[in-house]
Amino acid sequence: MNKRYIILILPSIFAIIFAFSFKKFDFAKARNMNVCKSLKGEVLVYYIFVDTKTTTPWTQFDIQSTNDSINIALKWLREKASNNNVDLKIKSDYYIGPEFSTIKKDLPEKSVETTIQTPNLKTGIENLNKWADFIAKKTGETFDLSTKDGIPEIKNPKNKERLIAYLRDEYKVESVALLFMVNNYYKTDISVYVNSFDTDDVEFAIVSYKYPSAIAHSILNLFGASDLYISPYRKNEKNIKFAEQEFPNEIMLDPYSKNINNQSISSFTNYLIGWSDTLDTKYVDLLFDKGIKLK
User: At CA 108, angle to CA 102 and CA 110, rounded to 5?
Assistant: First the structure.
């Protein structure tokens, strides 16, 4: 074959391989998916305080103020649901040991952000799943389970999937939003959600800040809402700018240090969390982003 034709063909082959390897990322996959399907009905938000060597230690004051923020976030979600004629009965509980002791488990990397991206998103998510399973097991070991003839009727949860199954039964709820709280209040890091786009493992979120807006944002993530700012899953700056123009007070924009009472849930997010069955065609492009490989 003529060398000139080989040179012309090779770029075309690489372009085809690239196109198939990096398909558009579809946020609609998280809609009505996994344990947290749609934000309706009986919902439990269960959160666990975690200390790592690179985050600020949780103090009694930090824990109590975070509990206050959780209550504010849930009140706000109830109000938004009511405004949309959605029946939402959302409540919360949390794990804390004696004398406000926490679960101790270091992140695989120095921060949440570096962990989920090292060496790539796929491996980062795998490492966070192992980290979360360890914490779920440690939490489950503390549960005083009922016994029959001296034998536990069920086994203590050994991973996050069994922890959520136990919590669903114990609290008689349809959905459990599992949050791992790390104290980055005085540091720069990110909050992130995991496993919302398939059913290979149960979804959970790691929350770095105790602002009510950040907590509500992460809960919405678990029920299908997509980030509308640069994050591990969202990279397209054109779409981000469009979202900022269309929904300036949208809570799925960067929620850092924002007053939750000034935030709103847009029609786009309503669709993703199951509060609406239709989406205006002008927002369809927001359902997609640049090629991000999760598997």
Answer: 85
